[in-house]
Each structure stands twice: as C-alpha cells, then as structure tokens.
Amino acid sequence: MIHKKGFVRRILVEPLSLTNNTADAQRLEKCLLDELSADYIRIPLPILKKLPSNLRLWEFRAKAVLFKDRHSWILVDLLNPVSDNPVLGTAVDIGTTRIVVSLIDLETGFEIGQKGFDNPQADIGPDVLARIHYSNKNAGLAELNSLVIDSVNFNISALCKEHGYKKEDVYLFAGAGNTAMTHLFLGIQSIEIIKEPYIPCVNIPDTQPAVNLNLDINENGVAFLFPNIGSYFGGDLISGILFSDLDQKQETCIMVDVGTNAEIVVGNRDWLIACAGAAGPALEGGVSKMGMTAKPGVIDQVWIDPDSRDLMIHTIDEIKPIGICGSGMIDLAASLFLSKRIDISGKFLKQACGEQLFEKHGINHFILVDENHSGTGEPICLSQVDLNLLTSSKAAMYTILEVIVKNTAGLEFEDLKKFYIAGTFGSFINPVSAISIGMLPDIPLKTFEVLGNSSLGGAKQLLKNPDAFERIMKIRQSITYIELNVNQEFMNMFSGAKFYPHTDSSRFPSLQNKI
Fold this sequence. Notes:
Blueprint (H helix, E strand, L loop, with lengths): L7 E5 L11 H13 L4 E2 L2 H13 L3 E8 L4 E7 L8 E7 L3 E8 L5 E8 L9 H8 L4 H23 L7 E8 L1 H8 L21 E2 L12 E4 L9 H10 L8 E6 L2 E7 L4 E7 L12 E2 L5 E7 L6 E5 L7 E3 H13 L11 H4 L3 E4 L2 E7 L10 E4 H25 L9 E5 H4 L4 H6 L11 E5 L1 H11 L2 H12 E3 L6 H9 L19
Parallel strand pairs: 2-4, 5-8, 8-10, 11-21, 13-23, 14-17, 15-17, 21-22
Antiparallel strand pairs: 1-3, 3-4, 5-6, 6-7, 9-10, 11-12, 12-13, 15-16, 18-19, 19-20
C-alpha cells in the first residue's frame, strides 16, 4: 500500500488575480511547499520553460512528480492533471553477480513486474576486486560503466514493453549496491577503495538527473543511489536495514547478508553496530568448482532419506542436476555430518561413504549425483578441497557473529529477538542445516526470518514512501562500523569454529541427540 502522501501529488496552484502579481513559479513553489510542509524545493529549468502556458491550459491544476535529495525536495515534472499517462519508478538491486529491476506504479505503490539478469561486468571480472583493478586501466572505467548502464537501460525498456508501458513513463530510479558497484555505476574512480586506508570517493551521492548517468528513462527523470558507510559496507546493506525495519525495532535484532563477504548489522531503534568480513568464498561460483549461482537445474536442497540413509536432492525447476549452489552445499555438508560420512574436522570417512568416495590426484571426492542422473553427463562431486573451503567459511561466519554479538555488543545469541537472513543466498538457506554445521547459532528456529532480496526491497520501499528518505539518512548516520581486524583472539575463536559443529559442542544443544 502506498503512503498516503507519495511522490505523486495532485495540486491546485492559486489562480491569477489583479491584486496578486506573484510570478507563476513562486505560486507553484508556495503551493508545493505548503503541500509538502517543506522549506525548500527545486524547480528545474525545463519545467519553468513551459510553466505559464501549462498552468493556464490546466486551469492551475497539475499532477506533480516529486523526489528528494539531501538538501531539498525536487520537482521532477509537472503533468496534466487529467492525463492517464502512468507515472512509474524503477527500484534496482545493483548486485555484483546479478541485477534485479522492479517496476513500480508511483501513484498506487503497486509492483508491476520484475526482471533479473546477470551483471555483464562479470565478463571482465567475476569479483569486485578484479573490476576495480580493470577500471584503473586506460578506458576500463568507462567500459565497466557502460556495460552496467546499457544492460539496466535494456532491461528497464524490456520490462516496460512487457507490461504495456514506455521507458519514458519512468521518472524515478532508486538503486542499491555495494560501495564498489555504486562507484562503477556512477562512473566514479574506485581504485582507492582497495588501497590503504580504503577510502571511497563518495559515501553519500546526491540525487542526479538521470541523463547525467546515461539512464534512458524520462528526460526529466532523476536517479538516487543508496549511500554507503565505507568501502566494505554499502548502500545495499542500508537498503536491507530499511526493508527489515531493524532501525525501528524496540528489541535487539540482527541482519546477516551472506555472499563472498558476510555483512552483519545488530541493534535496534536506539543503536546499530555493523561489520563485514570474508565468510563465504566456498558459497560463490568461481571459487569452489561446485558452488554455482542459483538457476534451473542447480541443486538447492539436500537431505537424508530417513529409511535408506541415502542423500536425496532437489533441483531448481526440478530438472536434471547440473551443479549445486550455496544453500545446497550447506545442506550437503549438514547431511554428510549428520549421517556420519564426515568427521568433526570435516574429513570424509571412507567406510561410511563407501563407493560414493573416490580418489583423484590424491584428493578425495564424494559423488552426490552419478553421471547417469546428471544433467551434464558427468558426476556431480564434492571434493575434500571444496569441503575444506566450506568448513572455513562456516567457521568465519560463526566467529564474525560471535565477535559482533558477544564481544562487541555484549549480548548472548539468545538475546536476539529476530535473526534476519538477507540476500539472494538467504532466500534459499535452511537454518536447520546452517545450525547443524555450526554456521549459525543454535537458537529457536522461530527467531530466523528470511528476507530474500532485501537490497531490492529497501529500494522499492523508498519509491512507495517518501518518509523512507529521512530514515535512510538517519540509518547511515546512526551506524557504528566496526573494522574486523584479524587479531590473535579472532584467530583463536576461528580455530575453534572449524570443527563440526564446534569444539564446544555444548553450544549446539539441539544436535546432542543427532551426533
């Protein structure tokens, strides 16, 4: 449901009279400031050029399309009050691997449709680091920028056409991405992000005319990119906090976004503490040969058959398996551990694995799906190397959680009212499996809540409710960012978490009868 006072307002400007010689622009300005209870509004020159004739033609009534920046309201466009032309906005999750565009009716708040596509910058570099290095060479930055802008333009246009609209119907663009992706999207130099002392060019980009970014929407359209906290805590996380309402909770909650890095925020309406750290290299395609982006044919669930003790699988769209994604790998590790096919250090047990285990180049491989049932014609295997990566990832995840919740915030895991899991990966994760391997703390399952694409969710929320703009700025201001230095204490805690589920098994009471 859209906020009753959204970004589209129907207004009545004070009509002309001989006793009042106020200029048209100032009449419009006064009307808008009264409507918005605001002190300042910017009226761009293109609107002024046609203002006298439009006001008189429309009998001093109009439909105003509005937005904000840090300093004031902006009049994006002034439309005929009786026009049936739609007024749309696009919310965009600018992901490193995948980009998702949502089309929103700004007058009703209704989501018209959504379209996801691979980030074309991945052809140049699979990760942020590679892209930033490339951006620092010759025309690298311009190339990376045009790749992402062109793909976003193409898909906005395609999404509009698919639902019977035109790209010119889109007036507002709200994008959320990590700090590096935001810089590359804006075409800003980003090399300093990865050099000590890791300083971004900008943390709070101003709202821009869309044409400045080469966004192909309405000629008067504007674009807003969610602000960052620093090099490793981006606008996608601030968008996620907005979406989860973490900043408005009375009781303490936590939000975790798991990817190649784990970004974590803990707090409530009075305080927010955040940190980021490497946690998931085994969960992303390209690092582990097995970890793939979720798509049709990818194994997203693994479980133990209660009768046969065989490992069962489910694939996305229920077609022949072609690989396994992060959530499937966590399920697989949990199933291997609970069925005693791996020991507490995460090593394969030959006798328990039987013929499913074979050795290649001195490395053990576990066959999850044989070549006869695979969609690729080759067996789908988990190597000991892949499993070791996953073990390190789950240990890092748990240790980061322990550091921020216990050491930094002075809380116990049981004190958390809600444990939000965000990101595309979070849409598929099974908390039971994550607890079983010691990746997430052993707290009641009702505490966990999957948010899905929280980055997109926050961007959509902004387009539906102007009040969200102040919340975004307040969230950014109120976060205390903790740098996770890899000190000896952290490494000691990390070493203890590299066992299944942990060296201190009393931390996982729900597993006592299973292992």
